[in-house]
Amino acid sequence: MSTGNPEGQGISRRKFLGGGAAAATALLLAGCRGGGQGGATGGGGGGGGVGNFPKTPQYNFVFVNHVTTNPFFTATQYGIQDACAILNCKYQWTGSENSIVSEMVNAMNTAIDGNADGIAVSIVDPKAFNEPILKAYQKGIPVVAYNANGAPGKPNPALAYIGQDLYESGVEMGKRIAKLVKKGKVALFIATPGQLNIQPRIDGAKAGIKQSGAPIQVSEVATGAQVNDELNRIDAYYQGHKDVNGMFAVDAGSTQSVGQVMKKYGLHKKGVKGGGYDLLPKTLQYIDEGILDFTIDQQPYEQGFWPVMQLYLWRISGGLMSPSSTSTGLKFVTKENVKPYLTTKSRYEGSSKKEKLIKPPSKITPPTA
Fold first, then answer.
1. Is the entire prediction scored with pTM above 0.90?
2. Hey, which of 33-42, 218-227, 253-262 has the most confident mean pLDDT?
3. What is the DSSP letter of 157?
4. What are phi and psi of 365, to 5 degrees?
């Protein structure tokens, strides 16, 4: 479990309310900027609250993750940091680097034994986290799921889930694949088959293709949890299947690797379609260049921000404010709308650690599938 000293200072309610509107706003913004950015622990110093929140202890919220060093979760950790800065709490980022469930369970038990004030866990196994969650409840520790919520249709004891509806996003992906490819052979790449943050996506994608009625033959291909392995296995797959009509992935690393293989062999110029998930910089670049057709944004920043907010509200309300499941959405990023992702560096997409106000668009485009 990673630990460290918090860097920021909290904002007392007296200071916040006593300085007038302009001063109060400045104090709040200063508090938002004060949260921990020096590693895997963040938060303000000392107890307190902002606005009309009561004075509190400095709550410690523990996030248990399945791939702690994966760049996808950079934005998630920024979301955690920013929420902790606002609320004057701290956090710990722990779990496993390589999706080893036993390591995650051990991290969760350590958090429980250490009397964490709340736990957020990626439930990537259908049963392994049920007992630790119930153990946490016996000690009065609230638990929410984020990013992954176990097996579809099989409830777990977490109070709420904050993240994308993984299966339904896969279904929508499958429908889009059918429109792009129309017929022929399609490869669906997955880093770790059975992992419940990505397996529902590939299951949904296969269902979406089947629902379309398109004459498409689907192959499911495992790539591995490490980016180099993903690239090598996707490259090797293409070498053995040069008649493929589409190559798509359900995780960030595999999606980037699909783009790299597509570019290496000029497959987009040969009519091969490609796409996947998440917003790694190379993936966005490949979309802008027309090498990949789409990627799917699931807003990882919110998957860190909202668990902190909900666990905090549970604590200050004495459990009356029960966490509520929150969808972080499904957005297709294509050549038509990729530019803002490329030109705007922000904490919200994990492309910059700087805190800055970003000017919103003058017009809003209605969401489309």
1. no
2. 253-262
3. S
4. -90, 130
